[in-house]
Amino acid sequence: MNVEKIIKVKKPLPVETKTILHLLLVNQRISEFTAEALKPFDVSTQQFNVLRILKGQNEKAANLSTLNERMVSKMSNTTRLVDKLILKKLVKRTVCESNRRKIEIFITKKGKEELKKMSEVILKTEKKLLQNISTSEMNELNELLNRLNTNNSEEQKL
């Protein structure tokens, strides 16, 4: 991917700028492929993420705070996402009997069944996106991204 060509600039970009733009372009491509893969299920990538979090609870209740903490995209409106999943009967929301102010969220049987199908499609999509990268290259890339993420999480926001 030639970043300069994609964004149509004549001069070479500074390597830092090129790297960030490259990451943004790759992120956009991944988002588009993932959204397209989930389209037949009528769920967004954020809704898919909520379903995976709830399945990972192993039958234990989650609350909105738990979902917010574990979301990949922290910009998501979790209440709205849960409401949409309830309408599709993929999750259910109950009021805790011991604490009436506490809302508990569970994945439904239908939600688990649909999530299984979605996960298979997403795995195929991931493999397609990464088909030109070897396992060792993916491990190396993950190490580099870990370093990038660690450096930025320890510093104040710019």
Essential attributes:
Arc Repressor Mutant, subunit A; 7 helices; two-stranded antiparallel sheet; mainly alpha
Task: Describe the structure concisely for a colleague.
This protein is mainly α and 158 residues long. Helices cover 63% and strands 6% of the residues.
Q: What is the CA-based Rg, rounded?
A: 19 Å
Largest sheet: 2 strands, antiparallel
User: Class by helix and strand content?
Assistant: mainly alpha
Percent range for β-strand residues: 5-15%
The number of strands is 2
Average pLDDT metric: 89
CATH homologous superfamily - what is it?
Answer: Winged helix-like DNA-binding domain superfamily/Winged helix DNA-binding domain
Q: How is the CATH topology named?
A: Arc Repressor Mutant, subunit A
* Level-2 CATH architecture: Orthogonal Bundle
Overall outline: elongated
Percent helix among the residues?
55-70%
Q: What's the CATH class, please?
A: Mainly Alpha
Number of helices: 7
In N-to-C order, the SSE pattern is HHHHHEEHH
What ranges have pLDDT less than 50 throughout 5 or more consecutive residues?
none
The number of distinct structural domains comes to 1
**Distance, first to last CA:** 28 Å
Please state how the strands of the largest beta sheet are arranged side by side: 1-2
